[in-house]
Amino acid sequence: MIELPALGWQSIVIFVVFALSLLIATYCTYAERVIAAFLQDRVGPDRAGPYGLLQPLADAVKMFTKEEFFPGGANKALFVFGPCLAMITALMSSAVIPFGNNMSFGNNAFFLQGIEVNIGMLWVFGVVSLGVYGVMIGGWASNNKFSLLGAIRAASQNISYELAMGMALIAVLMISGTLSLRDITLQQSVAGEWHFWNIVKQPLGFIIFLVCAFAETNRTPFDLPECETELVGGYHTEYSSMKLGLYLFSEYVNIFVVSAVMSVLYFGGFNFPFQYELRDWFVSSQGWELASAQNLITLLGTVGLFLKIFAFIFFFMWIRWTLPRFRYDQLMRLGWTILIPLAVFNILLTGGLILFGVI
Amino acid sequence: MSPLFLFLSFVALLSALGVVFAKNPVHSVLFLILTFFSLSGHYLLLNAQFLAAVNIIVYAGAIMVLFLFVIMFLNLNVDTEPHKPALAKVAAAVAGGSLLLILVAALKDVQPTGVAAGTAFNSQIGMVAQLGMKLYTDFLLPFELASVLFLVAMVGAVMLGKREAGERNF
Fold this sequence. Notes:
The complex is a heterodimer of chains A (about 350) and B (about 170). Chain A has about 350 residues and is mostly helical. Chain A contains 13 helices and two strands; from the N terminus they run H-H-H-E-E-H-H-H-H-H-H-H-H-H-H. Chain B has a domain at about 5-75 and about 115-130: NADH-ubiquinone/plastoquinone oxidoreductase chain 6, subunit NuoJ (Four Helix Bundle (Hemerythrin (Met), subunit A)). In chain B, helix 2 packs antiparallel against helix 3. The longest helix of chain B is centred in the middle third of the chain and has 26 residues, at about 50-75. The interface between A and B is medium-sized, with 34 and 30 residues. Chain B: GO terms for molecular function: NADH dehydrogenase (ubiquinone) activity; quinone binding. Chain B: Its main location: membrane.
């Protein structure tokens, strides 16, 4: 058993996770344009820096130097508070995601994870459910009918899809028997036996979770809260400057976090195939110490997790530039009359399979 | 008393007062959400992580979103605020005052006892595993009945939301 991690190491990990979330979100804005250009057979951003790599920086400069605009009759305090809240809630949920197994240097051992709590999954779920407040408060405080409509759409959409998402999670919980994301990850790979990731045991649950993830992050085809064709800009119609930037940015942070959660819950997290064999090979054939071999495997696992996350982020963007937007009543019907019954069925199915010892 | 406890209590009381005194109903709702957060902090101090998380998910994350949703629809503001007759105000003051009186009378002699002497404090008492064991052994029937009730409510909501045959799309 590993000692409780020292606060010094852990604060470094938390800082790195924070910086990485921001960095990845920054380059998501670039990736979105590049992927859009690729899918539409265009060139995409290529002016700022080599391959347009400095585009996010140019965007940031543009955002910061634009005029700060407050609409007449807006509730000033809440108008500023809305985007801040959206950003805070987006960044909070990455705290409990296990980005890697444990590292050890001499007597110092620590997890590559912000905080390890035994309610990790509930934490993510709780923070995600709070994310809608940023949109709602901003939309309401703008004193604009289109913003208000966007805010109300966001609220009802999030509430509806949270139900199906929660029930898809329950099926994962039934298999794992723990709420700790680290334990769920460790369970998906056991040394010395043929072990499958949760996606094999929960294909239906994963699809439900994936659809709900699109709805919770307000991504196309479920981006009804900011639907340009009907609502001008939706909840951020009245926003300008970096306040708008924070809203757009928090969407990318949310995509990063939800991709990480999906990788951890269904795709083995930091596990990769043949990791134990590789570790043993380093120890037996190369004469490494067990601890340093383990550290190397941990680092490789972290790289693997990030590859999984990037694959999901690409998937999010691929869908965005492929599928048209749903109509609002279709969105609600999909959530309530298709996904929720499917999620209940998935719970029953999982219970039956556990009862008969299949999984 | 730890400084954290004092801070959380301060925030809880202040935001609870804010709920009552805020002129704007949306501000009231936001203060109420802050109150729920400080209560969740108290649960954490009592080592009840699960209760803290569920309090945030259910109350702050779901019920208050619906509250805010409805209040945004109603568009309440100073101009449209209904003015209550004086009699209603007096009745409210009397009712609230008597509730305060009863609470003070009931709680004035309470002595905080803490953990009963002789029993070791179990630090795992509020954890998910402990709670699950308790719910599925001692309280199995009420737990299952409550879950059936929730399922029925959810099926009812889906049924109400389903479109009847021949109804217009929108």
